[in-house]
Design goal:
Layout lengths: L4 H28 L7 H4 L2 H13 L1 H7 L6 H17 L16 H5 L36 H9 L1 H4 L21 H10 L30 H43 L1
This protein binds heme C.
Protein name: Cytochrome C oxidase, mono-heme subunit/FixO
GO molecular function, one term: heme binding
InterPro entries: Cyt_c-like_dom_sf, Cyt_c_oxidase_monohaem-su/FixO
Length: 265
C-alpha cells in the first residue's frame, strides 16, 4: 500500500480528516459540554438596557414606531436577534472579527482575551469569529461609542472616521441620519451589547473620565480630541476674521446707511 502514490494520499487524507474532526468537532463539544446555551432574553443585561433606553429617548419617533411597547427587556431581546441577523446579512463579519486573541497586544486595543463561555449563546450560532480584520475587532464594542455616533457612522462612515473604507448603510435609515429604522436601531443595540456580558465591562473608562463634559461617548483619545478642538477653533477664528474683512470691504455704504438711520431717529 505505501509503495503506491494513491496509497500515501489515502493515508494522508484519513489522517488530516481525523485531525480536523478532533479540532473542529470533538474539542468544542468537550469545551461546551457543561455550559448552558443562553437565549437572547437571558443575554439582556442592565448595560445594554441603558443603551436601549437611550435609543428610545434619542430617536423617540422611530423607536415608538418600531418598538411599540417601549424599551422593555422583551423588545431589547428582539432587537438583539434582529441586530445580529442584520450583522450577518450585511456581511459586517467580512471586515470585523469578534475574537480578541492573546497575542499582538490585542488586549491593549480591545480589552480582555475572548473566552469559551462568551460564545455559548444564541447570538453566536453560528459563531461570528470573522475571517479577517479590515476594520477593528468588535467583541468589546459596547459603550466605546455613543448611540448617535453609531447612527452617524452607519449612515456615512467618513463623517466620523475620515478616510474610512467601510461602506455606507443608508438603508438602515428612513431617509435621514436622525431616523434610524428598525434594522438600524437593532444593529446599534447589538453593537452596544458586544462585551457587556463580561464582569470587567466597561472597557473604555476614558468614555466617562478623560473626556468629561467635552464630548461624552465618542471615546476618541484625548490628545486627538484636543488636536481636533484646536483645529476647529483655528478654523472658526479664520472664518470670523474672514467675514470681518468682508464686512470691511463692503462697509462704507452700509455705515453710511446706518448713520442716516440714526440721524432719522
Ligand atoms: C469593507 C469592510 C467593512 C465592512 C463591510 C464593515 N466595516 Fe465596519 N469598519 C471598517 C473599517 C475599516 C473601520 C475603521 C474606520 C471607521 O471607523 O469607519 C470600521 C469601523 C467600524 C466600527 C467602529 C469601531 C470603533 O469603535 O472604532 C463599527 C462599530 C463598525 N465598523 C461596525 C460595522 C458594522 C455593524 C458593519 C455591517 C453593517 C460593518 N462595520 C461593515 C470596515 C468595514
Amino acid at each position: 500500500m505505501f509503495e503506491t502514490k494513491s496509497g500515501v494520499f489515502l493515508i494522508a487524507g484519513l489522517f488530516f480528516f481525523a485531525i480536523a474532526f478532533l479540532g473542529n468537532a470533538l474539542v468544542p463539544m468537550m469545551m461546551y459540554r457543561d455550559l448552558p446555551e443562553l437565549t437572547a432574553e437571558q443575554l439582556v443585561n442592565p448595560h445594554v438596557m441603558e443603551h436601549f433606553r437611550d435609543l428610545s429617548e434619542r430617536y423617540p419617533e422611530s423607536f415608538e414606531e418600531h418598538f411599540v411597547l417601549g424599551p422593555t427587556e422583551e423588545n431589547c431581546a428582539e432587537a438583539l436577534r434582529l441586530g445580529r441577523s442584520v450583522y450577518v446579512g450585511e456581511a459586517c463579519w467580512h471586515c470585523h472579527s469578534q475574537f480578541v486573541r492573546p497575542v499582538g497586544n490585542e488586549t491593549v486595543r480591545w480589552g480582555p482575551v475572548a473566552e469559551t463561555w462568551e460564545y455559548q449563546n444564541e447570538l453566536q450560532r453560528p459563531v461570528l469569529f470573522g475571517t479577517r480584520r479590515v476594520g477593528p475587532d468588535l467583541s468589546r464594542e459596547a459603550a466605546r461609542r455613543s448611540n448617535d455616533w453609531h447612527a452617524a457612522h452607519f449612515y456615512r462612515p467618513v463623517d466620523t472616521s475620515p478616510g474610512s473604507v467601510m461602506p455606507e448603510y443608508p438603508w438602515l435609515f428612513d431617509g435621514a441620519v436622525y431616523r434610524p429604522n428598525k434594522r438600524g436601531l437593532a444593529l446599534i443595540t447589538y453593537m452596544q451589547f458586544l462585551g457587556t456580558q463580561l464582569p470587567t465591562y466597561p472597557y473604555y473608562e476614558r468614555w466617562e473620565s478623560d473626556l468629561d463634559g467635552l464630548h461624552p461617548g465618542v471615546g476618541i483619545p484625548k490628545e486627538r480630541w484636543e488636536q481636533m478642538q484646536r483645529a476647529y477653533r483655528g478654523a472658526e477664528e479664520a472664518s470670523t476674521s474672514a467675514s470681518i474683512e468682508e464686512d470691511d470691504n463692503t462697509d462704507s455704504p452700509a455705515t453710511e446707511g446706518d448713520e442716516k438711520k440714526e440721524d432719522a431717529s
